[in-house]
Amino acid sequence: MQFKDERLIPIFEKIKNGGNINKQEALHILHSPFPLEVAFMARYVKLKKSQKKVYYVINKHINYTNICISRCRFCAYSKDAGDRDGYTLSLDEILKDIASAGKRLREVHIVGGLHPHLRFSYYTSMLENIKKNFPYVQIKAFTAVEIAHFANLYGMTFKQVLEELRNAGLDSMPGGGAEIFSERVRKKLFPRKIGYEQWSEIHRIAHSMNIPTNATMLFGHIETEEEVVEHLFKLRDLQDETGGFLCFIPLPFHPWNTIFEGKIKKATALKELKIIALSRIILNNFPHIKAYWIMLSPQVSQIALNFGADDMDGTICEERITHAAGAITPSGLKENTIRNLIKKSGFVPMERDALYHEYG
Ligand code: SF4
Q1: CATH for 193
Q2: With contact defined as beta carbons under 8 Å apart, do 108 and 96 qualify?
Q3: Which of 66, 75, 321 has the most ligand 1 atoms within 8 A of CB, as the residue to mutate?
Q4: Does residue 331 surpass a pLDDT of 80?
Q5: Which end of the chain is more exposed for a tag (fewer CB within 10 A), N or C?
Q6: What pLDDT score was predicted for residue 229?
Q7: Overall domain count for the chain
């Protein structure tokens, strides 16, 4: 490619030689007025990692409760205990929900609020019963924030919590709750939630127990570009240390139904695409970068495949959290729709499970 943005030339040389870009170069990528040149560099990394393949999974989201003691200021989903809009799913409801997804289901993604009163057996028996009734399904469950909450509430160490959950059927963990690794932002937006130190500690322990995990970043609120870059560099260092991350998922903030409605606009598609490309370039040690269509929209996710993403998540069936924040995307997609979105972008759809085993 003939770069019009000459400052990208040495950056691309570094990328081609397998080197790590520095923070200044990362900021330049974000500022570059030539997004297609940025896309070209990110696609180069993607093609080296996963060739023309783009992954998707037949999955189901279970959001077991919206009652949460954290009440993060950006969250449109959580309720207080006793609130009439609060809900907690029973085990029967969860099993019925999963059964409704059919026999081709490969992954359940389970996350919820930090409930102050449930017993620990609610979670372990949830996992045990899912494994018993749907032995063909992998369980990706509980963010580091939920693990820290369980440890706190039930007087256990992080490791004890993870051991009990793994014995009950946990296969992998999602990457949520990371938000943005900045104490400045944490104090303003989610002061009761764990910060980077505990988030990274829990993922480190999970990786040491061979529980793979994902990682996320919530952007498009009050964070600075420097904080975005810092977040990505922290993850790259952590992955160099443990090697246990499977996928990184950048999540654009949805302001609707939050205190930021009318004050903050959702990130533009261009910003979302640049963040995906930057993630692919910085996190060259992460196997996969996901274009999460629920938050990006199917259309932007499709373009994101040419900005370095190699995963489109899945069918999902019934997503509640982003839809509480006003998402206008569907709450599920048919498998054929996902396959067509991938094919029409020039890539090859590859069905996967939670651990990225391929089902070609
Ligand atoms: S973002 Fe998560 S931890 Fe924070 S209030 Fe919402 S459900 Fe609770």
Answers
A1: 3.20.20.70
A2: no
A3: 75
A4: no
A5: C
A6: 98
A7: 1
